[in-house]
Structure formats: structure tokens, C-alpha cells
Design brief:
With 143 residues, the protein is mainly alpha-helical. Helices cover 99% and strands 0% of the residues. It has one helix at 2-142. It is rod-shaped and about 200 Å long.
């Protein structure tokens, strides 16, 4: 009977182990499904992140190209600005030279006007002297 009791005990223990094994297999299957689902989620997130990274890299490339274009335009504007400043400085120098030449010409005109006035006065004096001499001559001749 001991052997039947032992056998029954072993059967009960074996049944318990089989039940535990079944539960463990169910738990492992659930865990495998959960892990598989988690892996699928992570792969989906990774795919989204890769797409976002590609989009950001594309935007970065566009921004770098735009920055290079703007930098080039800026350089061209600075060159144009330098040229305009130089042109303006040259025009200012030309204007100053013209103003100086004009001042010289105005001064010469004033000198010539003074000389002309002097010549007119001298002419007037000579005409008066001539008139006086003619008058004297005419009086002498009449006498």
C-alpha cells in the first residue's frame, strides 16, 4: 500500500507539475505575445523616427542651401554697397573740385568786372579830356 500511496502522491505531484507547466507555458505565450507586440511598437516607432530624421535632414539641407544663397547675396550686396560708397566719394570729390573751380571763375569774373570798371572810368576820363581839348581847340580856332 505504501507503494500505491507513493504512486498516488507522485501522480498528484506530477499532475501539479503538469498544471504548473501549463500555467508557465501560458504565461510564456502571453509574455511572448506581449514581447512581440512591444517589438512591433518599437519597430513602428523606429520607422517613424527614421522618417522624421530623413525629413529633418532634408529640411537641414534646404536650410544650408538657403543660408549659402543668402550669404552669397549678402556678399554681393556688400560689394555693391562698397562700389556705391566709392562712387559717392568720387562724386563728392568731383563736386568739391567743381565748386572750387566755380569759386575761382567767380573770383576772375569779379576781377575782370573791376578791371572793366577801371577801363570804363579811364575811358570816361579820356573822353572828358578829349572833349575838353576839342573844346579848347574849337575856341582857339574860333578866335
Amino acid at each position: 500500500m505504501a507503494s500505491t500511496a507513493e504512486t498516488n502522491s507522485l501522480k498528484v505531484e506530477m499532475n501539479s507539475w503538469h498544471a504548473q507547466k501549463g500555467e508557465m507555458e501560458e504565461q510564456r505565450t502571453r509574455k511572448d505575445e506581449e514581447t512581440s507586440d512591444r517589438i512591433k511598437d518599437l519597430v513602428g516607432q523606429l520607422t517613424e523616427m527614421k522618417q522624421e530624421l530623413e525629413s529633418l535632414n532634408s529640411q537641414k539641407t534646404e536650410m544650408v542651401l538657403l543660408l549659402e544663397k543668402r550669404t552669397q547675396e549678402n556678399s554681393e550686396f556688400l560689394i555693391q554697397l562698397g562700389n556705391l560708397k566709392e562712387e559717392l566719394a568720387n562724386k563728392a570729390v568731383d563736386q568739391q573740385r567743381k565748386m572750387e573751380e566755380e569759386e575761382i571763375l567767380v573770383s576772375k569774373v569779379k576781377e575782370l568786372e573791376l578791371e572793366l570798371d577801371s577801363i570804363r572810368n579811364h575811358k570816361s576820363e579820356l573822353e572828358e579830356q578829349l572833349s575838353s581839348k576839342l573844346h579848347e581847340y574849337n575856341q582857339l580856332r574860333d578866335d
